[in-house]
Design goal:
Elements: H1 3-16, H2 30-35, E1 68-69, H3 95-113, H4 118-125, H5 131-146, E2 149-153, E3 159-165, E4 168-175, E5 180-184, E6 201-209, E7 215-223
Parallel strand pairs: 1-7
Antiparallel strand pairs: 2-5, 3-4, 4-6, 6-7
Length: 236
């Protein structure tokens, strides 16, 4: 994807993901290599972070480090209807299922957090995001609110790979963002040019399991390598 196009997409993604931090896109990101080959994504530091787990904001973290998020190559949106609000990661589900459930809840919590007071937003984000990621999300939420924007539409999460190593995990999501974007918070109408890409967005995600048993997103990157969604989607 051309750098100009990526930067334009990052702007709309920033709003959708106000709840999901999105730092720079680093060419040295390890997850991109672990989950599949592809050209290193363009790098860009965002001033604000995600407003909802669906887009990406900007964390001042070192390239490839945890607790960082890169701006997706398309605006992320809300979690699929199949995602629940139960405490993923602390349940009796298999580790893989718990990780996917936590990731789905991450996006859902991000969207909800963009519509409530900050103290309530913190309560929504704490179970699904590491502290640094949550801080970035809150900054992103403030940013889109200042611009009188809000998440619009719906994303479809399509996890195609999960790799677990002890208390850390890496996940690949061939996400459909074509039905999501940013809206004017006064009219609730879609802002032209902010709708997601017609092509799947390949997210490389890292999660950490806390002492409470919950899996939290510690890093999320949009990579340029193409992806193929699985035959079924989580929650379907």
């Amino acid at each position: 994807m051309a750098r100009e196009a990526m930067m334009a997409i990052n702007e709309s993604a920033r709003g959708w993901a106000a709840a999901v931090p999105a730092p720079d896109i680093s060419p040295r990101h390890r997850s991109a290599r672990a989950l599949g080959p592809g050209r290193p994504p363009a790098r860009r530091a965002l001033a604000a972070c995600c407003a909802i787990v669906v887009a990406a904001g900007g964390l001042a973290c070192s390239p490839g480090s945890d607790d960082s998020v890169t701006v997706p190559s398309s605006p992320p949106l809300s979690a699929p209807s199949g995602s629940g609000s139960s405490s993923a990661g602390a349940s009796s589900a298999s580790p893989r299922d718990a990780i996917i459930a936590s990731y789905q809840q991450y996006w859902d919590a991000g969207r909800k957090a963009a519509t409530v007071p900050e103290d309530q937003a913190r309560k929504l984000l704490e179970p699904v995001s590491t502290p640094k990621v949550m801080a970035a999300q809150l900054r992103g939420i403030r940013d889109i609110r200042a611009k009188r924007q809000e998440p619009w539409g719906k994303i479809v999460i399509r996890v195609y790979a999960v790799d677990i190593t002890g208390s850390t995990a890496e996940l690949g999501d061939c996400q459909d963002t074509s039905g999501a974007g940013l809206a004017d918070s006064r009219t609730h109408q879609l802002i032209p040019g902010t709708r997601g890409s017609a092509k799947p967005v390949n997210f490389s995600v890292k999660l950490k399991r806390g002492a409470d048993g919950r899996w939290r997103v510690s890093s999320i990157w949009a990579v340029e390598a193409p992806c193929t969604p699985p035959s079924t989607t989580p929650g379907s």
